[in-house]
Amino acid sequence: MVSLQERQAQMMAFLLNGDEQIAEHISSSELVNGNQRLEIYSNGYRLRLKETLAVDHDILAAYMGDEAFDELANKFVESCPSQNKSLRHFAQTLPDFLVEHYAQYPQLAELAAFERRLLFSFDAADAEPLDNDFLQRLAPEDWPICRFSWHPSLQIFDCQYNVVPIWQELKQEQAPPAPIEQRSRWAIWRNAERLTQFTSLMGVEVALLQSLANGDNLSHACEQLLDYLSEEEIPSFLHSRLQSYISNGMLCLAKESKD
Amino acid sequence: MEGHVKAVKDDYLGFGLGLRTDHFEEVLQGSPKVDWFEVISENFMVAGGKPRYYLQQVRERYPIVMHGVSMSLGSTDPLDMNYLKQLKALTDEIQPAWISDHLCWSQLGGINSHDLLPMPYTEEALKHIVSNIKQAQDFLGRQMLIENVSSYISYRESAMTEWEFYSAVVEEADCLMLLDINNIYVSARNHHFDAEQYLASINPQRVRQMHLAGHSDYGDYIIDTHDHPVVDSVWQLYAKAIQRFGPVSTMIERDDDIPALSELIGELDQARRISAEALTGLSVGSLVNG
User: Fold this and answer.
1) Among A37, A70, A104, where does a domain finish?
2) Which chain B residue lies closest to A192 (C-alpha atoms)?
3) Which of B48, B111, B120 sits opposite A7 (nearest CB)?
């Protein structure tokens, strides 16, 4: 008799590759033979993973259409068995898979990546966002040394195609725009009501947010903005953007001082 | 771990439901007539966000038990200590009445089937899963409940019945039973054994919780789908279980085609009625049909 480990390896080989070594070790009954019994598991295995893809990437599925998405799901399930306890992470390599196997449609990988970013923000750690009146209470002498940190859910998504407008139209069950090369940057985060949001960012905003994420104080962050804005433009830009980020729940107070 | 068995009946919670996303708001706003909720542990083993927030809110209002689906206790892969650490952290935060997982394996060589795969009922498998349950209980610092799974295959090398294997596991690992009545029914039909003989072999002192659920009946076999109401045959088996084991905390699992909360509460009221009447000694047939 083979060991437990070998028997489990045979069962897994059947699920993953249809290897039938296990079949002779499974009992049959008059009504249902061993192969039919095993198929209940292999069918369930594929169905479960494909359902996960369809739920986590419902907009990609709508964009591709049932037939093409089903073909993608079959290929992905066969090529990328789950290496995670949670189905939530099963499709985390889907954007890379699309880059490799659907290179002629580069917007697909970006659309899948956008959906994964939304999932990440939904599940990210909690943190207390700054109060809406934080800047009003900040003493003038504290502005230069003040530091912020990103809310753990905040991410910047950089894409080369118009995948966010495509996502938005499909979400509204409207026909998506044709794919075009159109570089854009987006902030994605979870707001105080725990709803996932996103907004487009100008290049100067990306520079500001990345400076804050690097732990720069506001004095240093202003220096980064000189590549984009004149010295006179910076104070009002800084105030309006910071107030917007704070109101949206994107920023927290930095935990540690860099100086 | 002395004294655990005696404590079984002291922890009676009543009648519960699985906490599902669709019902989060209604549970918080409406304070529905549910004695407790069971949560799928893995759904809340995330860093933060809405599900964790709702779980904390529901925990303030109701007792919670945590039910895991991926500890893979029967696998010959080593136990995933990172998973156990995350589970323990959630347990410390939520303080569930108890935690449970399954008599099965799911993962091998780092690949996860995301299924509850049955064990061969052999001495080797028994020793293996007992060792893993002990290790998990020691790490978590608490006794676990282990649930019987629905199965569609049986291995030719099995030297015991499922109930002999299950009973031996809980005695040797000193754990408790989450007895899934639907799973007993499903497996009995699939493997042509007597569900009542199964119940008769179970040590009542080990049974702390019961699951009820619906399934899909394909005639020659049944699949445990959790997407239908509980069927009469399972209600009848439940009544017999209650007659044998006495009052046991019972919940209804519904994981697909999830109906309105009010519909599930109606089904839970049926469990309350059948349990109460089974305890007064009415005949099982009159319980389900009357």
Assistant:
1) A104
2) B49
3) B120
